[in-house]
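Action item from last meeting closed. Structure (95 res):
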């Protein structure tokens, strides 16, 4: 559970991987350097809940997915609009 320090391509740029959110993943520094070594492979599955499967040189496979988004604290309703949004909407409607 090390903090994310590197953002990198899942499919490397030099292998045709696009520089796009769908091809990006955050890594701790050590993991990012390790996965660039010989025999490591990362594959993204694009569907409900993007998942990355990392295969090590020994053939072990590890699945990684982004964390769930934060939730409102218990007992509090989630804020649906910022306090600024109604004012902006009024200005837009008046324009």
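Sequence:
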């Amino acid at each position: 559970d090390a903090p994310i320090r590197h953002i990198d391509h899942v499919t490397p740029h030099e292998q045709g991987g696009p520089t796009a959110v769908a091809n990006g993943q955050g890594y701790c520094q050590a993991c990012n350097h390790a996965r660039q070594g010989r025999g490591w492979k990362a594959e993204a599955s694009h569907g409900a809940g993007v998942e990355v499967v990392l295969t090590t040189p020994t053939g072990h496979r590890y699945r990684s997915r982004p964390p769930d988004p934060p939730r409102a604290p218990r007992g509090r309703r989630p804020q649906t609009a910022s306090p600024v949004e109604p004012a902006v909407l009024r200005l837009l409607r008046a324009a």
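Note appended to the action item: The longest strand covers residues 41-45.
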